[in-house]
Structure formats: C-alpha cells, structure tokens
Amino acid sequence: MTSVTTNPDERALLQAAFRSFDEAAHTLQQSYSALTARVEEMDAELGQSNDALRRQLADNEAMRVRLDGILESLSTGVVVLDECGITTRSNRAAEHLLGVSEVELRGRCISEVLAHRGLTVSDRPQRIGQSVVSISQVPLRNDSGEDSGQLVLLQDMTRIYQLEEQLQRKDRLAAMGELIGRIAHEIRNPLGSVELFASLLQRDLGEHQPAQRYAQQISQAVQLMDGLLANLLLYMRPVHLTRAWHEAAALLNESIELAAHAIKKVAVDIRIDISQEVPSIWCHDGQLKQVIVNLVVNAVQAMPNGGELGISLSREPFQTLGTSAVRLTVRDSGVGIDPAHRSRLFDPFFTTKDEGTGLGLAIVHSIVEAHHGRIDIESTVGQGTACSIILPHPSATEELNSQAGPDSEGHGVSDTEPAVREVVLMEDSSYD
Known about the structure:
Blueprint: H1 8-73, E1 77-81, E2 87-90, H2 92-98, H3 102-105, H4 110-116, E3 122-128, E4 131-141, E5 147-156, H5 158-204, H6 210-236, E6 244-247, H7 248-258, H8 260-263, E7 268-274, E8 280-283, H9 285-301, E9 307-316, E10 325-332, H10 360-370, E11 374-380, E12 384-392, H11 396-404
Parallel strand pairs: 7-9
Antiparallel strand pairs: 1-2, 1-5, 3-4, 4-5, 6-8, 9-10, 10-12, 11-12
Helix pairs in contact: 5-6, 7-9, 9-10
C-alpha cells in the first residue's frame, strides 16, 4: 500500500515541479507552433523561389533558342573559339561557306580549317568556290569584360563584289563606247564605197576572168567587216523594248532551232525543264531569243566532245530583283570558265577564241539590262557553267504600270512601241 506524503514541504515541492513541467510543456508547444509556422512560411518562400527559378530557366531557354535562331539566321558566318583557338560553336552560314559540317568543324583548330581551303584571316576578298568572302577575327568577352575566346566572322561579299565588277565594267564601257561608235561610223563609210566598187568590178569583168573571183572575195570580206560593224553599232545603240507575254515553251524551242547550226556539230543531249508556274515570259521575244541563242552556242562550244545542255525556267524569290521574277538558266557540262576571265566576260572584244570577236556576251548583257534583269554565272573549271538570266515577271498591276510610262532605263520608249529590230545572230564566241 502506497503511502501519501503528508509533509507540506514535499507537497509544495511536488506542486512546484508540476507547474514547472506545465510551463516547460507550454513553452515547448509554443516553440513547436512557431517552428511549424516558420516551416510553412519557408515552404511558401521555397515554392515562390522555385517558381521564380523555373520562370527564369524558361526565359533563359527561350532566350537561348532565340539567340540560336538569330545566329543561324545570319548570312554572316560565325565561328566561336575558346581560349586555345578550338572551335566550340558555328552557324550554318559558316559551315556552308567553309564546306564542312558542324561535327567536322567542332573541336578543330580554325587556322587548320582555313588553311585547308587556302584561306586566312584577312579583310581582303578571298574566293571560296563561287563565293567571295572576307574573314575577320574579334575577341569574345564575358559579362565582366574579360576575354573568353574569339569570334571568326566570314562575311559573304559575293553580291557586293559582283556590283563592284558591274560598276567597273560600266566605267570601262562608257569610255570604250564613245570611241567604238565613232570608229565604227568612220570605217563604215569607206567600206560602203569599197563594196560598191567591188560590185561594179564584178559586173564589168567577165564571168570566167580570174580577176572576177578576186573582186568577189573583196566583196565578201567587206560584207563580213560590215557585219562586224553592224554588231558594234547594235551593241552601242540603246536597246528598245516591245515587251509582251510570250509562251515559254515555244520561245525556247524556237531559240534552239535558231542555234541548230552549232548544236549539230557535236553530240549534245538537250534537256528542257519549264516550271508549271512559268507558262509564259514577259519580254521582247526577238531579243530574248538572241540572248538564248548566244548562250546556247557558247554552251555547245564549251563541250567540244559533247555533253549535256540543260535549259530550265523557274520562279525566282521576290528579293532577287525586288519584284516578281523568273530565272532562265542555260547549263553545260563543258570545260568551265577560267577564274581569271570572270570579270571580263561581258566586255566587248574579249574572247579567247581566234575566230571570235567577243561581242556576243556583251550584247547579251546589254539586252538583259534593258529588260531590267540580271545575269548570274556559276562555273567550275572542268565541270561546266551555268548562266542564269533573271527577268522581271510582273503581275497584272505591274504590267499596266510598265505600259503606262517611258522605259525606266531612260530610253524613252514604252512597251507598246513597235519593235525596232529582230534577232541578229552574233558570231560564235565561247566562254573560254
């Protein structure tokens, strides 16, 4: 049987102990409640921090994707190098210009890649295949402004280079043109007299006299010289246009028939590809036939042992001419064009053939410019040449505007005026 403490002092001590325990338990309960509240607050704060972090990660990922898209959309080639000059990143433009894939480029020293293509870091124009580029290198800095690598920039200057060539060509032609025109007129006048007297001499001489044959040869030589002068004057004279819609298939077939004299000389496989989007061409049919005939003859002469001649017609992107346009391409599998001759292809009198006079492509260039078009040439020695004529392909509204006023080239001739000349076949003149 348990004895009950009756000692007042002991009882007081026991009661004090219970009170202390209750106070400690109450304090502990308050601490626990405060800790629980704090944990809940921290959970909420952590949740907010996690949400903010997720949003930031999403924003960073969106920014990364956007920056990657911008980098890949640049026409300038960009190669990112680390501190050791090793490639860590590149865009499609750089890979296209260098002719390598990202896998082949990454991890390699950029100087070796450039040296393999015969290139170096330099602002001067350098040719890569059909493209002309300038290559520069700039430091890559981080947020603190410290160098963290290098950027190699490959700027495609092909179109700028072509425009500079055109300007230089126009300067040369402007000076040459005035001289050519005056000389041609001065020579043509006495040639007419020589032709007249040679004809009279043939008439007066007997049919069987040896001198009659000499007079005939003089007359033929004068006619050849007169034809050359006619081509010169044709080149110098402003080109007048009577443009209209012409069926593409018929125009190309008639042009090939006109060039049959050259095509029959070699074994040529002709392939014509006309896009269904381009059933007709807005042009002066006679002059465009003249362009096609010259290009076809050149292409055939570039294939002395035969080959494949391709003629294609397709729509061209709007940005090429700043308006709706079509691309007419004459392609051969011949000897190609020497790069040293590229800048002089359309100069009058430039030819590498003994029997050529170098006027064919010069007149082609003049006609295409009169059509407000453009000529692009791509060629690889030993593989062939593709000559593309890009011509406006107006809509109904653009056609009405074109017919309403004078020719924008300053010739003062509207598209509704009568034609001033038909096809004049140029002398055979090869690309190379």
